[in-house]
Amino acid sequence: MYIQNKIDAALQRCNIRICNYISNVRAKSYCEIVDMLSEGKISPELLIVKVHKRTINKCGRETILAALEGVVNKTDCRILKQLKEELDMLRRHKVECLVMLRDICMENFKEQILDIQTIPGIGEQGAMQIIAETGVDIKALMPAAMLVGWAGLKPRNDESNGKFKSRSTTHGNKYLRKILIECAWGASRTQRCFFNKFSYHQTMVRKKNIQKVQVAIARKILVVIWNILEKGVVYSDVLEKDKTKDN
Fold first, then answer.
1. Residue 121 contacts residue 195 (beta carbons within 8 Å)
2. Which tens digit of pLDDT belongs to each residue from 29-61?
3. For residue 62, what are the domain limits?
4. Same domain flag for 91 and 114
5. pLDDT at 167
6. Integer Cα distance of 158 and 150 in angstroms
7. Is there a single domain that holds both residue 54 and residue 119?
8. 8 Å CB contact between 112 and 176
9. Reduced to 3 DSSP states, what percent helix, strand and coil does the chain have, rounded to the nearest 5?
10. Are residues 115 and 168 in the same domain?
11. Do residues 89 and 147 both lie within one domain?
């Protein structure tokens, strides 16, 4: 993201403001415009071809052309090319690291990786990243509350005279917390599972902030992961158990 921001800053210096009308700097249209500029193609009429028609219809062709009209010289093109090559290199390194991580996990922790993937919202990459942060010897982090606190997902108990001053989470492993919150978003969107029902009830019925609800779901997912690694079992959804009892 740092390199992408540097690329956008380079475009801003050239008075190219297309980022104001494209959703984000990782969008396909934006990346193709950067590719053309790095190759020395600076004509707005050529660049606008890469902008999605929906964006042109929404903002107007003249507005998009004005956003692509900049002062770009050979030095700017060279800088964009170098930044793009650096970004491509980082992406290539990321893929290589993920492949290496997968090989290590499948060789040593295959059973745990597959068990964690039974939790809604967690795929192979998420499971590998979680194992990379926590390890599989979960007894070193007993009990589960200690693991939750280590991840920085435990609510702060800042109370004085019966009044709560803060409910923000504690400091912890920011990498593990980020992974779990991403998984929480996926779990809350997985239909017919406990996390989806919990998210709906908290946000729609109790009117709680959706960001705080995702933190709560991430905390619950981490407790489930602790039980999976500690007991060597797979995830069993509460809703599925209720259906079995009804039948």
1. yes
2. 889 999 999 999 999 999 999 998 888 998 899
3. 2-95
4. no
5. 64
6. 18
7. no
8. no
9. 70, 5, 30
10. yes
11. no
* 1/231: higher pLDDT: 231
b/e per residue, 190-206, with b = 16+ CB within 10 A? eeebbbbebbeebbeee
- State residue 123 phi and psi, 5-degree precision: -100, -170
Judge whether 167 and 152 are in contact, CB under 8 Å. Answer: no
* Contact status, residue 157 vs residue 170, Cβ threshold 8 Å: no
> Per the structure block, which two tokens stand in for 223?
């407790």
CA atoms within 13 A on the CB side of 240: 8
Residue 87's identity, in one-letter code, is L
pLDDT tens, position by position, 76-124:
999 999 999 999 999 999 999 999 999 999 999 999 999 999 999 999 9
Q: What's the rounded Cα separation, in Å, for the pair 28 and 35?
A: 11
Instruction: Tell me how far apart the alpha carbons of residues 240 and 190 are, in angstroms, rounded to a whole number.
Output: 14
Q: Could you give the percent of the chain with pLDDT greater than 90?
A: 57
Q: Which amino acid is at 71?
A: V
Q: Do 188 and 121 form a contact (C-beta atoms < 8 A)?
A: yes
Measured at the alpha carbon of residue 186, what is the angle toward residues 183 and 190, in degrees to the nearest 5? 135
d(CA 47, CA 32): 9
Q: Mean pLDDT across the chain, nearest whole number? A: 88
Looking at the structure, do residues 80 and 126 belong to the same domain, yes or no?
A: no
Domain co-membership, 199 together with 237: yes
Q: Could you give the angle at which helices 124-134 and 210-231 cross, rounded to 10 degrees?
A: 70
> Which two tokens mark 230?
């500690």
